[in-house]
Amino acid sequence: MIDVIKKTLLAGVGAAVITKEKAEAALDEFVRQGKLSTSDARIMAEKIAEQGRREFEEMSQTLSNKLKSVLDRNEADAAARLAALENRVLVLENKVTPTPTRAGEP
């Protein structure tokens, strides 16, 4: 039943995270209709708010990890491209600038 109420609240409020106060306010309608007691509504509001906070924190952590992974991968790609460019410049410099020869060599 809590899942149905949570889904109803999320759909009605349109929020990913519901504060305890918002959940209580939404559950008040169920209390007025006699479908829930006040204490049950308060307990459900606390559970919904806590679960919302946990889900938000988990999503934030997952997103943070994915972003870090993408940035690390991009950084590694950039370092590889930079090394390749440095190597190409070195090769071109060697072609343009003749290497010093020893005395007596042509």
Describe the fold and architecture:
The protein has one domain. The chain is 79% helix and 0% strand. It is built from 3 helices and no strands. The protein has helices at 2-13, 20-32, 38-96. α2 packs antiparallel against α3 (38-96). It is rod-shaped, with a radius of gyration of 32 Å. The mean pLDDT is 78.
Which structural class do you get from the secondary structure elements?
mainly alpha
Tell me the β content.
Answer: under 5%
Averaged pLDDT: 78
SSE run:
HHH
Given the structure, what is the number of helices? 3
Radius of gyration: 32 Å
- Count of beta strands: 0
**C-alpha geometry:** rod-shaped
Tell me roughly what share of residues is in helical segments: over 70%
* End-to-end Cα distance: 93 Å
Blueprint (SSEs and pairs):
Layout: H1 2-13, H2 20-32, H3 38-96
Helix pairs in contact: 2-3
Which tags fit this structure?
106 residues, mainly alpha, 3 helices
Brief overview, please?
The chain is built from three helices and no strands.
